[in-house]
Amino acid sequence: MRKILLTAALAALPLAASAADVKDDVVEARQGYYSLLGANMGTLVSMVKGETEYDGAKAQTAADNMLILTKYNIGHLYMPGTSSEDMPGKTAALPKIWNDMGGVQEKGMAFVKAVENLQEVAGLDKGELAKGIQQVGGSCKGCHDDYRAKH
User: Fold this and answer.
1) 93 φ, ψ (degrees, to nearest 5)
2) Does residue 140 have a known ligand-binding role?
3) Which domain holds residue 135?
4) Per residue of the chain (151 residues), what is the pLDDT tens digit?
5) CATH of the domain at 20
6) Per the annotation, does 23 bind a ligand?
7) Closest by Cα among 32, 41, 45 to 115
8) How far apart are CA 79 and CA 26, in angstroms?
9) Is 133 annotated as a binding residue?
10) Which of 30, 51, 126, 131 maximizes the CB count within 10 A of its CB?
């Protein structure tokens, strides 16, 4: 009997490790998605701040990239069990996300609308880009304030 239990326990080890790996992969993918958004946002913010010269074509490309990313269905990136409480030190996603999906979706739609507006004006001129960036930044902040752990 002991031998059977030991064999069963050893056989279950890869399954437990596999479940943990899936959650790690989900968090990594979620962070990667937001890193892609952040990289494009960084390009645009740099132009608005004058850290790099405004280039309408580059601004338009970054805004186009962001718009394409908003079309990606990110629902699977919010697997239950992948919050900052479940995986301390690996993610800043607060557990509140999974208890307030309606609020998260509302803020997500505000972000999409802001990115759509940004995409329409990014290549026009620096002033229009600045207005668009302000709107997108506000939508990011709204979600971060409510659903992201402070560092």
Assistant:
1) -70, 115
2) yes
3) 2-147
4) 555 544 555 455 454 445 679 999 999 999 999 999 999 999 999 999 999 999 999 999 999 999 999 999 999 999 999 999 999 999 999 999 999 999 999 999 999 999 999 999 999 999 999 999 999 999 999 999 999 999 7
5) 1.20.120.10
6) no
7) 41
8) 7
9) no
10) 30
